[in-house]
Amino acid sequence: MVDPLSIDRGGHRTWLKWHRGRRRISDPAFTGARILEGMRLGASVEVDLVIHADHGCAILHNLTLDEETTGRGAVRETGAAALRQLHLRDNRGTPLPDQVMLLEDLCELLDREPPDPHALLQLDFKEDVAALDAETVASFAASVGPHSAHMILSGGDAEAVRMLAETTPGLRTGYDPCYGDSLARLQSTGDFKGFIDTALRTAPDAEFIYLSHEIVLAADRDIVGTVHADGRRVDAWTIREVTPASLSQVDRLLALKVDQITTDDPEGLLAALAS
Fold first, then answer.
1. What pLDDT shows up at residue 266?
2. Where does residue 201 rank: exposed (0-12), middle (13-18), buried (19+ CB within 10 A)?
3. Could you count the other beta carbons within 10 Å of the beta carbon of residue 183?
4. Is 271 exposed, middle or buried (0-12, 13-18, 19+ CB in 10 A)?
5. pLDDT-derived band of residue 1, with 50, 70 and 90 as boundaries?
6. What region holds the GP-PDE domain (predicted)?
7. Cis bond upstream, residue 31 (ω within 30)
8. Average pLDDT over residues 262-272
9. Based on C-alpha coordinates, what's the Rg of the chain?
10. pLDDT at 275 over 90
């Protein structure tokens, strides 16, 4: 079986990003074993960060614990020791043997099993700049600093990303300007050019611009080309499952030469495209 890392088409390579650390659709999110596998193979892997009560970050997507873990309440009100005692849930909500990881726990795993030189771990910060304080920023830098060559920090708040990244030399950054009803607003105004121009100005140091694949495909112009012309790369998110409709979308994204496609099923997507 070919490892689901990238797709070459028309002389352009597009990486398949393992969304929330998933290699295949049946995988639960954020398990250490799968994240390490991806990094060992040289994949592009994504995890999410939310702040906990002890001024560090947990590897979780939601600001509350109820859906993803065996805990309850707000992550922000839960300390590090309590978080480490919680178990993750699978896609059906069943508790797993795997426990919640903190950012420093994940970095310790990477210390024990160094990544492939081509691996890239995206840290997607799910909060805004108002959530940050000096202690949280320092904790982030201490954990990520030794691994910054294999990481990229992203988020929807460019100032929060800047504050975290400036304390961590060598850490690349990305920016996601898509939120709420962005697609509906763009379909109403038609101002895709203004949308992309604003994103590029807002995050001048961002290596990646992360765009909803629906926005990329709905645009009345080649916004991927606009990003490329500014020396940046495009990640199109998120292909949830492999269907005839999603394969058609992926074919269009590949024709537009996006640099990365975020998907919950990298293995299934690569197999479907190969067949």
1. 98
2. exposed
3. 14
4. middle
5. confident
6. 4-273
7. no
8. 98
9. 18
10. no
Q: Considering the entire predicted model, what is its pTM?
A: 0.97
Per-residue 3-state assignment (H helix, E strand, C coil) for the chain: CCCCCEEEECCEEEEEEEHHHCCCCCCCCCCHHHHHHHHHHCCEEEEEEEECCCCCEECCCCCECCCCECCCCEHHHCCHHHHHCCEEECCCCCEEEEECCEHHHHHHHHHHCCCCCCCEEEEEECCCHHHCCHHHHHHHHHHHHHHHHHEEEEECCHHHHHHHHCCCCCCEEEECCCCCCHHHHHHHHCCHHHHHHHHHHHCCCCCEEEEEHHHHHHCCCCHHHHHHHCCCEEEEEEECCCCHHHHHHHHHHHHCCCCEEEECCHHHHHHHHHC
Domain 6-274, architecture per CATH = Alpha-Beta Barrel (3.20)
Measured in degrees and rounded to the nearest 5, phi and psi for residue 244 equal -55, -40
Count the alpha carbons within 13 Å of 55 in the hemisphere toward its beta carbon. Answer: 11
Nearest to 139 by CA among 169, 102, 101: 102
d(CA 132, CA 49): 12
d(CA 119, CA 209): 19
Q: Are 203 and 228 in contact (CB under 8 A)?
A: no
Tens of pLDDT, residues 162-205 = 999 999 999 999 999 999 899 999 999 999 999 999 999 999 99
Average the pLDDT over 95-108 and give the result: 98
For residue 105 the two structure tokens come to 């726990």
CA dist., res. 160 & res. 129, Å (int): 4
DSSP-derived pairing of the beta strands 260-263 and 12-18: parallel
Across 81-109, average pLDDT: 98
